[in-house]
Amino acid sequence: MWQLYQFPLCPFSRKVRLLMSEKGIAYELWRENPWEGRDEFFALNPAGRTPVLHDPAKGITLCDSRAICEYFEETVDKVPLINGTATNRAEIRRLLALFDENFFGDVTAPLLHERMKKRLIYRQSPDSRVLREAMKLAHEHLYYIDHLVDHRPWLAGATMSLADLAAAAQISVADYLGGLDWSGHEQAAAWYAVFKSRPSFRPLLSERMEVIQPPSHYGDVNA
């Protein structure tokens, strides 16, 4: 069975977990805190980042969330998530990059640094200026999601795709860390509520990071 090395608030691990669950691929969770710098983990991934997917029986190790997702798109026919015409697939990949890179850099990464790493690793208080800027940029991303779902059933088109999974994974971490203000974003909130009710998403909502607790609405599928 696949072993997925991850930690609870890694958005890229969450994306892989969502994809594997949607495709019905069995896996075991292995907790890995990359900041601990374990030699055994660096042997699996010299970049020292999660997620890492390892199958010891087959001697296969996969690193980088996009590479892992593309691997399963090529090897598992069930529930295709990079689908449609070449134009549709290009749009999925465009949005995938937007959430993996821009949303992560603007919102998720600063929140993780200020509200998780500073607390757990450095024993420091968060910088309120950085938090305000991340929450301001989060509004801009949510406005764009509002725009997308005003014109499409799903973010990239007519069907659920890897773009939706990537966006939901990033948003779930930002929401856990209290970095999202949903007021004025009814379209984005409705799209995200659909995701929260999916069986693949429920395990994420039930997990907690030690010491850090999410807002009360985080695990509520109706919120």
Tags for this entry?
single chain, 223 residues, alpha+beta, 4 strands, 8% strand
Describe the 3D structure.
The chain has 223 residues and is of the alpha+beta class. It contains eight helices and four strands; from the N terminus they run βαβαββαααααα. The chain has helices at residues 11-23, 39-44, 65-75, 86-120, 128-151, 162-176, 186-196, 202-206; strands spanning 2-6, 27-31, 52-55, 60-63. Strands 2-1-3-4 form a four-stranded mixed sheet, covered by helices on one side. β1, α1 (11-23) and β2 (27-31) form a beta-alpha-beta unit. The mean pLDDT is 96.
Compile the SSE list and pairings.
Layout: E1 2-6, H1 11-23, E2 27-31, H2 39-44, E3 52-55, E4 60-63, H3 65-75, H4 86-120, H5 128-151, H6 162-176, H7 186-196, H8 202-206
Parallel strand pairs: 1-2
Antiparallel strand pairs: 1-3, 3-4
Helix pairs in contact: 1-3, 1-6, 4-5, 4-6, 5-7
Strand content: 5-15%
Number of helices: 8
Question: What's the overall average pLDDT, rounded?
Answer: 96
Largest sheet: 4 strands, mixed
Distance between the termini: 35 Å
User: Which term fits the overall shape?
Assistant: globular
Produce a short descriptive summary.
54% of the residues lie in helices and 8% in strands. The protein has eight helices and four strands.
